Amino acid sequence: MRSIFDEMNMLEREMDLLCNSNSCVALMPKKSMVQASRLPIADLYETESSVVATFELPGVEKEDVQLDVTEDRIKVKVEKKAEKETEEKGAYSYEMKSRSFYGALPMPKGVAAENAEASYRNGVLRIEIPKIKPQDTRKRIEIK
Predict the structure, then answer these.
(1) Residues β-bridged to residue 100
(2) What is the pLDDT of residues 86-133, one digit of tens each?
(3) How far is it, in rounded angstroms, from Cα 13 to Cα 126?
(4) Which of 12, 67, 131, 139 has its CA 20 to 30 A from that of 91?
C-alpha cells in the first residue's frame, strides 16, 4: 500500500515530465512533506509506583483523542477533521482537512490498567498506570 507521500512524489515526477521544471510549480515543497509526515513524540517511563506514558499531540483537541489502556498496551488514536465552506460573489469554495495518528506502546508486566488515569494539557497527553504490588504467593502447606 502506497502512502499519500509516495503518491505526491509520483505525481510531481509526472508533472516534471510534462513541463519544464522552471515553469511548473511543485505541488508540495519537500520541506512541507517532511513536516506533514512527522509523527508525534511518545515516551514511556517507570516510577516506583507507576508506569507513565506521554504523547505530544500539538494542535489536537481532547475530544479528538481516543485512548485505550490494556494490561499489555496503550493505544492512542487521533482523528481530526475540519471543513470550511464559503460562497461569495458567485464563487463557491469547499476545503476539507483531515489529520490522523495511531500509536501503541507496549506495557511492562505488572500494571493495573483498570486504574489508569489520563490528562491532556498544552498538547501533551499523559497516562499514568499504577503498578500492581507484588504479593507474597508463598503458602505454607501442611505435610500429611
Answers:
(1) 79
(2) 888 888 888 888 778 888 889 888 899 999 999 999 999 999 999 988
(3) 42
(4) 12
Domain with CATH 2.60.40.790 in the chain: 39-130
CA dist., res. 109 & res. 72, Å (int): 7
Report the C-alpha gap between 86 and 95 in whole angstroms: 9
- 85, 97 contact by CB (below 8 A): no
Alpha helices in 19-98 (DSSP H): 30-36
Whether the Cβ atoms of residue 41 and residue 126 lie closer than 8 Å to each other: no
CA separation for the pair 77, 7 (Å, rounded): 24
- Supply the CATH classification number for the domain 39-130: 2.60.40.790
Query: Quick check: helix, strand or coil at residue 63?
Result: helix
Note the pTM of the prediction, 2 decimals: 0.60
CB 69 within 8 A of CB 77: no
